[in-house]
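lol ok so funny story. i was supposed to be doing the assay writeup but got distracted and ended up predicting the structure for this chain instead. priorities right. anyway since i did it might as well share w the group, maybe its usefull for someone
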Amino acid sequence: MAADYKVQQVYLDRGRVRFERGGRNAVPPDRRARALIVEPSTATERPVRPEADSEVDVRVVLSWRHSGTVVLDSASRLSIPDLPAAPGLYRLSLPATMPDASRRRIYIGETSSLSRRLAGNYRHPGPTQRTSLRINALLHGHLSQGGAVHLATALTATVYRAGRPQPLDLTVKACRLLAENAALVAVHACEDWETINLP
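and the output, tada:
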């Protein structure tokens, strides 16, 4: 503060803080373009582009891996394939049960623990878990009518920032949401699929 720096932005996921000149005291124009980037263990000073001039250029690539089918057990409860307790994305595909029904339904979600979300929440939803109750009822009703439910998962993804690829950290919720929405947009553009997530 004594050097006319103020906090411009905090990046919790990267452990970085950006300080920018222009605190309470007047700063000459030639100094306002300078910013201080503080890394977890080092501090370097370098000019940065103003946020207003920045472009968002992001592309997400992920591959679905077939992880089994969801069925009803002898007690008429959902039986979910074994999944790891790892963060990732999941896709539940519900093919049409009627011969004349052309559109298939699909649900895509993200979670910090695949096993807890699907084998836990969706199989035994709590009274206040509205989404889990809705998905449980949807799957149960579809299977009771003789339909099939196919499960696919994605444990990794790649993000292209300004054309440069790097792994997408799926331990961070914002990254999982980015991948989830990218997958939803891709499916929503297909006329023969109905995304349950979107109206």
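The mean pLDDT is 83. Residues 173-188 form the longest helix (16 residues).
back to the writeup now i swear
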